[in-house]
Amino acid sequence: MTNVLEIRGATKSFGDVQALAGASLSLQAGEWLALLGPNGAGKTTLVRAIAGRVRLDGGETTLLGRSLVGNGASRRQLGIVPQEVALFPLLTAAENLRAWGTLCGVEAGDLAERVEWALGWTALGDRSSEPVEGFSGGMKRRLNLACGVLHRPRVVLLDEPTAGVDPQSRERIWEMLEELRSQGASLLLTTHQLDEAQQVADRIAIIDQGRVIEEGTFAELLKRTVGAERRVRFTLARQPTAGVPEGFERLEDGRLELRVESVTQELEHSLRRLREAGCEIVDLEIEVPSLQTVFLHLTGKDLRE
Amino acid sequence: MITTLLSIGWISLKRDRVALLLTFVLPIVFFSIFAVIFSGAGGGGAKEIDLRVLVVDLDQSEVSRALVAKLASQEVLTVSMTREVADQGTEEPWTRESAHQAVRQGEADAALVLPPAMGETFGDFGGEAPEVELIYDASNPMAQFTVSGLLQAASFQSSPQVLMKKGLGMLEKFGGRLTPEQQQAVDFAVPALESGELSGAGAGGLLQIKPTAAHDESDDDQGPMIISYYAAGIGVMFLLFSMTGAAGGLLEEQERGTLERVLSSNVSMGMLLGSRWMFFSALGLVQVLLMFVWGWGVFGLEIWSVKRMSGLLAMSVVTAAAAASFGLVLAAACRSRAQLGGLSTIVVLVMSAVGGSMVPRFVMPDFMGTAAKFTINGWALDGFLKVLWYEDPAATTIEALWGLAPELAVLSALAVAFFVAARRLARRWEVA
Is B260:A82 a contact under the CB 8 Å cutoff? Predict the structure, then answer.
C-alpha cells in the first residue's frame, strides 16, 4: 500500500525536555492508525508537528510524497480534529461549519453543499441554527469532527475525538469515522481508549519517550510482546489431591491458571485433567490478552506525570 | 478545615501576581495619583496657577497703563499686550477680536478689554465705574474668577494717588474745602502714594467687570464644555476597556484550542491579528461615535456640521485604531483572560486618570499635564476638545483638520507601534 503520510527520525526539544527523539511513523492510504502512548510520550508533539504547529529540530514529514515544511498546498490535504472542542461557542452549528470550511479552504461554491453534508453526517440538521454553546458534549464533539473534515482532506489527524462523551455518542463518532475512511480518507488517531483503538484501528503504533517503540497490527503486537495465549483461571471448591497438574500454575488467591493457545480446543481437555486430579471446579475465567496488556508491557506501569 | 481553606486561599493568592497587584498595589497607585492631583504633591505644594491673560488697552491712559503694570506684577498672571504678526516677525497690540479668538482657541486663559476713557472715570465715587470686559474660557473656571479678583485688587493698588485726589475732590465738593493743615498732609501723601511709599486700599469695586465667554454659550454655562469633555474623556476610557476586553477573546480562543485550530488552517498569525485589529477598530469607531451621538441627542452636544463631523470622524478613527492595537498588546502579553482582566484594569485606569478622562487636566499640576502626553487618553482628549470646544469658527474644514495633525499623527503612530508590539508578542502562539 502507498504511504500517504511519513515521519522519519523526528526530533524536537523544548528546552531541556526532549519531546521527540527520532520518532518514525507511516500512514497508508485508507488506513486507520492508532497512535498510543502514555502522557508525555510525545504523541501531541508529533501530531502538532504534522499539523505544522511544531517546527521539528530534525527529521522529515511528508504528505503524499511532498515535504510538509512550508508547503501550504500539501497541508490543505490534512484535516485536523483537536482534542479540545475548538468551536466558536456563540456561533450556530451551521455558522461554525461555514466559518471552518472557509478557513480550511473550501471553495465558496462548494460551501453550502459541504455544510449540508456535514449537518446530515453529524445528525445536527435540526439544530443547525442553534448556538453551539447550548449543545451537549456529544453534539459538540460531532461538530468538532465535522469542522475538521469539511474540506475533504486525504489525511485526518484525530486527537482524542471521543474524550468526555457518553457511549452512544462515542459509538456514533466511530461510525462517522468509519464512514470517512470508507470514502478514502486515512485516519491517524491518538487516544487513551485502548479497547476502542484495538477495535477500530488497522494498525497501532506505540510511542514512548519520543520514539515509536512498536508498530503493527494488534495480532503482530501481541505476537511480538506478550504473546497470543489466553489465560484460563479455575476457581476450585476442592484442591487437587496430589499436587498441581502439569502445565497449571497456582495463584496467590488459590486459583489455578493455565495458558492456552486456543480455548476452544484445549478447554475440555483441561477440565478433564483437573477432575481426574480430584478438583471440584466451581467457576472459570478466561483472560484474552488485550491492547492494554500489550501497552503496559511495553511502557510499564510507572506513572509518567 | 477552616485552616486548610485559608491556606488554599493564601497560596492561590500569592501565586497569582495579578491578584496580588490588584489587591495591594492598585489601591496604592490610585491613592497616589489622586493625592498628587488634588494636593499638588510633587509639584511644589499647591498647584501653581499660571494664567495667560491678554490685555487690549483701548484707553492708553496713565491709569490703564498703571493697571496693566500692576496686573503684570502678579505672579500667577502672564500678561501679554501684543501678539506676533504671522510671517512678518513684528508685534502688534491685541485687538478685541484677535484676543477673543485666541481665548476661544485655547491659546490664552482670558483676555481683558480696557475701555476707552477708562482713566477719566476711574475712581469717580459718584459716577459709574468703567466697564472692563473679561473674555474667558469656560473650560477653565479658575481663569474667570482669578482674573476678576486680581483685576479688582490691581485697580485699587495701581493708582492710589488718583483715588485720593478724586476722593478729596468729592469731599471738597460736598463737605467744604480742606483746612491748611489737611491740605499740607495731602500734599505730602500724594507723592508718597505715587512713589509707592504708601499703599492704597479700598473697599468696593472700582471697575465693573463684564464677563464674556469666549464661546457662544451663556457666560455662566459650562455645561456644553463639561459634556464635550466627558463625552471624550469617558468615551476614550471605555473604549480602552472594551478594546482590551475584546482582545481578550484571543486568550479564550487559546484556552479553548480554537486559536491553535485557526492557525493550523490557512490563516497566519499576521492575518489573524490584522483582521482582529480591523474588527476592533471598527467596533471602537462605532462605540466612540455613538457616544457623541448620544451626547447630541441627550445633552445637546453640537456635532452636526461638516467641520465638526470631519474632525470627530478623523479623531475617532485614529483613537479607535490606537485603542484596538493597545488591546491586542495587552492580550498578547497576558497568559490568561483573568490576567488580562487584572492588568487591563490597572493600566486603563491609570492612563485614564493621568490622561484626564477622570479628572479635568486644568486642575492637575503641570507635570501631570506632561504625563498625559504619554497616554492615549491625553492625546485623544486634546484632539476631541479641539473639535468640540476650541474650534475656530473662521477656519475651514481643511484648516480644522490640519489643526488636529499632532493628535492624529501621534495616535496613528501609537496604533502602529502597539500593533507591531502585539505582533511580536504573539509569536508565542505561533509554531513552537
Answer: yes
> What one-character DSSP code corresponds to residue B426?
G
The β-bridge partners of B79 are B53
d(CA B55, CA A164): 81
Closest CA to B237 of B139, B344, B337: B344
ipTM surpassing 0.85: no
Q: Any CB–CB contact under 8 A between B271 and chain A?
A: no
Out of A86, A100, A105, whose CB is closest to B257?
A86
Q: What b/e readout covers B401-426, taking b as 16+ CB neighbours within 10 angstroms?
A: bebbeebbebbeebbeebbebbbebb
Q: At what angle are helices A108-121 and A93-103 packed, to 10 degrees?
A: 130
Question: Rounded mean pLDDT of chain A?
Answer: 89
Q: Given pLDDT bands bounded at 50, 70 and 90, which one contains residue B37?
A: low
Task: Supply the Cα-derived Rg of chain B in whole angstroms.
Answer: 30
β strands within B183-265, DSSP E: 208-213
Best probe of the A interface among B252, B258, B261, B272, by most A CBs < 10 A, is B261
Q: Confidence class of residue B317 from pLDDT cuts 50, 70 and 90?
A: very high
Alpha helices for B40-129 (secondary structure H) = 62-72, 96-104, 118-121
Measured between beta carbons, the chain A residues lying within 8 angstroms of B257 are: 82-86
What sign does the dihedral A279-A285-A291-A296 (CA atoms) show? negative
Q: Contact B29/B57 with Cβ under 8 angstroms? A: no
* B160: pLDDT strictly greater than 70: no
Confirm if A137 and A69 have CB atoms less than 8 A apart. no
Q: Residue B340 pLDDT more than 70?
A: yes
Sequence-separated (6 or more) residues with CB below 8 Å from residue A223: none
What sign results for the dihedral spanned by CA atoms B365, B368, B372, B378? negative
DSSP for A67-86?
E-TT-HHHHTTEEEE-SS--
Cell of B61: 491712559
- The residue assigned the cell 482590551 is B244
Q: Using the beta-carbon criterion (under 8 Å), do B266 and A103 form an inter-chain contact?
A: yes
Coil/strand/helix, residue A18? strand
